[in-house]
Amino acid sequence: MDFSEGGHWHYAMVEPNGQEYWGRMDYQTIRPIDNYTSLDGFCDDTGKLNPDLPRSKWNVTFSDLAAHTLVETVVSYTSSEAIQQVINMGLKEGLTSTLERLDELLLVLDQE
């Protein structure tokens, strides 16, 4: 992971049965503390993007709420067909699982 403008994150999503799905997020802009934007897409285990699968644009913003931070993530696709394709591939379930695990992690960190 190279969290810098022009850098990227190459990652694997792994199912409980061991099946791997690879992704690559390319960071476009980074404004420390405030915001970052990126392009996310499916790739192979070497990081080569799959041109047959849609990429999404991410805009992640952090807002100071005194004792807390609000994180807003807007993910957009180029067409309704593109978003339907990733929904059919399990986007909803995968994102739900990720956010539930993040909630659990934040609760543990809050108790420390």
Automatic annotation (TrEMBL):
Any single Pfam family the record assigns to this protein: AHSA1
Signal peptide bounds: none
Domain Activator of Hsp90 ATPase homologue 1/2-like C-terminal: 1-106
Family: Belongs to the AHA1 family.
Stated name of the protein: Activator of Hsp90 ATPase-like protein
